[in-house]
């Protein structure tokens, strides 16, 4: 596929990608858009030229604050829209080529939260991360709890505090417990990020229905980068016995362009061998992991960023299909726009750890920064930037970035 549009070969937003997001500018409300290179295309404006009329997708679907209605059209239609955009970008005679004013510089628009997230679940599916955390929080000898290799552990997170890239986060306040002495209240001292990938539900189920691993991908619209901001000192004191609560619910940040599962198809790889064998409802066939290169940088205020982690989504022990099969095996229904996050994605060596808790070995080691200085956890005015892309045979499909700056406690 070759476009008439000049696209930087290093761009995450190649013609093979065509993600979906929400934009606005001074003269228009929020609309569904796609991104190509450093341009965006307002799909409402394009649809009003009858670009998608033959696909049975009406312009109103694109005139929306969120992608939910568009996603609700179903994969047959949304993937036809994506293919139609690719066609228009390659066809010299296309309506898009004739109306090149529909290509807007990314710098001239505002990019918003892409989906209305009704429910959010966070998994814990990286064996390296679960092992590292088990060692730090509990027992170095028996880091993994007995259930871990038998089911994708997860908890119900908070959807209301999911924000888009660029929204700054105030350091949370809460209750923590000094080693000796009673609990105290104040700003979190051990603020951290978690490098994760989230997937967005594209097809709902009814209450009491379950999704099989074979059907799971029909229910996944697309993926985003996900920063699960974490207050480790609050978490440590509150998490027993019901799991994460205020140490997590203050904010999670996502990248604004939803990359479709379809666009990631070329980058599938086998997951790790699961031992012991899983129960029948968690068995799956085919390549269900994705070779998605991930990076995290920390940028102090008025300083250059330092790359502090390089990881990969392919390390996941439990894949998305297994997570969804497990999530719904009890009859829990899912809705369009629900967010399912992977859990922190860590690799085997310390350069691939997906949180500062792991990198600093619970605050025992420092992480050096490029222009001097060091960190164990996030300081006020630090920005955390996560980036991710797939690349194979000269084809690149990426997510751009999710960025957030930490401001002092309010
Ligand atoms: Mn998490």
| Percent strand | 25-35%
Low-confidence stretches: none
Ligand species: manganese (II) ion
The computed structural class is: alpha+beta
The tally of structural domains comes to 2
CATH class (first level) name of the largest domain:
Alpha Beta
Largest sheet: 8 strands, mixed
Percent helix: 10-25%
CATH topology of the largest domain: Fumarylacetoacetate hydrolase, domain 2
| Counted beta strands | 26
CATH superfamily of the largest domain: Fumarylacetoacetase-like, C-terminal domain
Distance between the termini: 50 Å
Description:
Strand 20 (293-299) and strand 21 (306-312) form a beta hairpin. This protein has two domains: 21-112, Roll (SH3 type barrels); 120-290 and 313-351, Fumarylacetoacetase-like, C-terminal domain (Fumarylacetoacetate hydrolase, domain 2), CATH 3.90.850.10. With 410 residues, it is α+β, with helices and mostly antiparallel strands. The protein is 16% helix and 28% strand. It starts with 20 loop residues before the first strand and ends with a strand.
């Amino acid at each position: 596929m070759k476009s008439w549009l000049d696209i930087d070969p290093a761009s995450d937003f190649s013609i093979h990608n065509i993600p979906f997001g929400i934009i606005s500018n001074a003269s228009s409300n929020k609309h569904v858009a796609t991104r190509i290179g450093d341009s965006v295309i307002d799909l409402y404006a394009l649809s009003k030229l009858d670009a998608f009329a033959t696909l049975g997708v009406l312009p109103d679907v694109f005139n929306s604050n969120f992608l939910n209605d568009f996603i609700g059209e179903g994969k047959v239609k949304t993937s036809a829209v994506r293919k139609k955009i690719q066609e228009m970008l390659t066809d010299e005679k296309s309506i898009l080529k004739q109306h090149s004013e529909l290509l807007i510089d990314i710098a001239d628009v505002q990019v918003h939260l892409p989906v209305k997230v009704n429910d959010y679940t966070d998994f814990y599916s990286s064996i390296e991360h679960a092992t590292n955390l088990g060692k730090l929080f509990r027992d170095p000898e028996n880091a993994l709890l007995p259930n871990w290799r038998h089911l994708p552990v997860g908890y119900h997170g908070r959807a209301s505090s999911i924000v888009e890239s660029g929204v700054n986060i105030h350091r949370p306040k809460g209750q923590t417990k000094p080693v000796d002495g009673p609990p105290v209240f104040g700003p979190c001292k051990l603020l951290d990020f978690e490098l994760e990938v989230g997937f967005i539900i594209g097809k709902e189920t009814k209450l009491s229905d379950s999704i099989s691993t074979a059907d799971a991908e029909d229910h996944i619209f697309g993926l985003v980068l996900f920063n699960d901001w974490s207050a480790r000192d609050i978490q440590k004191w509150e998490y027993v016995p019901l799991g994460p609560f205020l140490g997590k619910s203050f904010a999670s940040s996502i990248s604004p362009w939803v990359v479709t599962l379809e666009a990631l198809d070329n980058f599938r790889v086998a997951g790790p061998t699961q031992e012991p064998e899983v129960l029948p409802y968690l068995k799956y066939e085919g390549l269900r992991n994705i070779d998605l290169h991930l990076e995290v940088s920390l940028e102090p205020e008025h300083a250059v960023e330092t790359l502090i982690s390089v990881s990969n989504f392919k390390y996941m022990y439990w894949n998305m299909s297994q997570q969804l099969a497990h999530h719904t095996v009890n009859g829990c229904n899912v809705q369009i726009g629900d967010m399912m996050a992977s859990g922190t994605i860590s690799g085997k060596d310390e350069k691939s750890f997906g949180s500062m808790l792991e990198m600093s070995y619970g605050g025992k080691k420092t992480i050096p920064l490029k222009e001097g200085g060091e960190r164990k956890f996030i300081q006020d005015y630090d920005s955390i930037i996560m980036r991710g892309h797939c690349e194979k045979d000269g084809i690149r499909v990426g997510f751009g970035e999710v960025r957030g700056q930490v401001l002092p406690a309010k």
